Amino acid sequence: MNESLTGTRERILAAAAEIFGARGFKAATIRQIAEAAGVNVAAINYHFKGKLGLYTEVLEALLSEGFTRYPADMGLCPEAPAAQRLEAFVRSFCNRLLGPEGWGGYHGKARLIVKEMADPSPALAEVVDHHIRPHKRMLVEIVQELLGPGVAPQAALACTFSIVGQCFYYAMAQPLLTLLAPEREDVETRIEELAEHVLIFSLGGIDKIVDSLSVAPGDGGGP
Amino acid sequence: MNESLTGTRERILAAAAEIFGARGFKAATIRQIAEAAGVNVAAINYHFKGKLGLYTEVLEALLSEGFTRYPADMGLCPEAPAAQRLEAFVRSFCNRLLGPEGWGGYHGKARLIVKEMADPSPALAEVVDHHIRPHKRMLVEIVQELLGPGVAPQAALACTFSIVGQCFYYAMAQPLLTLLAPEREDVETRIEELAEHVLIFSLGGIDKIVDSLSVAPGDGGGP
DNA sequence: AGTTGATTTAAACGGTTGTTTAAATCAACT
DNA sequence: AGTTGATTTAAACAACCGTTTAAATCAACT
What we know:
With about 220 residues, the first copy, chain A, is mainly α. Chain A has helices at about 10-25, 30-35, 40-45, 50-70, 80-100, 110-120, 125-145, 155-170, 175-180, 190-215.
């Protein structure tokens, strides 16, 4: 973490990533950040235009680093089988979200994203456009290929959200999980197992969706 | 909403449910609540011991009402087939979480629970013990029955979280979803479709988990 | 050395927060 | 009518927030 940064601007950014990650945008105060960075509060408003300006830069850098370190295709060529591409997507997603080299899960910087969901700041729309939307499109295409031709786009969208929702849950609902299953060790230590579970579960889910659509496209499914 | 409550205590509780639901524990202010209830700020500290006391009572009442209106078994007898019990669980869960008679999804009182995940208040542990833990146990039993005998408990737990995670995602990640798929109408209007999707997807997921465990309990699965 | 412009600082500003104080009001009973 | 105790109120309190101001410091160039 401490890279012994010399410039004040960099020191502020590093401290802000830490404090914003731990407490979120609203709860974090620029005085805490200034103290952690060893600078005056006014220096923050001088280098960035204000609290929101600093936060936007931190969030943008966080997303950028995460998606660079864990690319969603994991170096796989786009012509690889859809199941392989799904595995790459899920594994990189879990590692990016929960891994210590990534956002570190609920106890790390991923909490920033969790808080961003709880109440979005003006910075959310930007990072969605820059980073999240392209990856959502990528996953939708994988799912559509797995579902096969002639399947309604909204079905692919629902499966997409089912996949992402599983991974997100482990990052977002950590307080619940530790209260509900305290015997279970933290997810951060079993990321690959989690990714494999999500992959298998989701492949099975997609298969069953295909079945239900081809067998009975309209009613609840015959006996 | 306005039930023309006479007692100040009830008026405060009603207003607090509204304001806490819209803004969360920290962002909501007792002055907003006092104004909405038409009482003085000091009255809140008189009847409840403070902001946290009021919040705890509101949260407890919210959970209690939700689980009463949408019981997780939907009146099904406990000896019914596991698949039916899962359907009841998922449908009641989605309706409770997203339905207008329930917690109203992200734009309603469910946001309170979302914020409680983002940063838990001291009131979370209580409602988990009172309401959530029993229902988690119920779902784990259903999943274990679907998985069949001789399956590791942690596999059932993972499937349980996969199911709940899908539903939760629609409530927690609403800001993301509206940014990513603005053409899609709000989930609150398609609850039954969502529940059916989650049910089918999850049944397929559980099936595939069973397959993977019986075929290759240890490696990544054959060709 | 002296000037210039960018950077950093201490201090204060205006506003909001949860909570408390002490006085005023109300209802019920003697 | 008068007393008592619970309730409600206006007002103040102390702490904190993000931001701004104006002066002090620094680095670079003439």
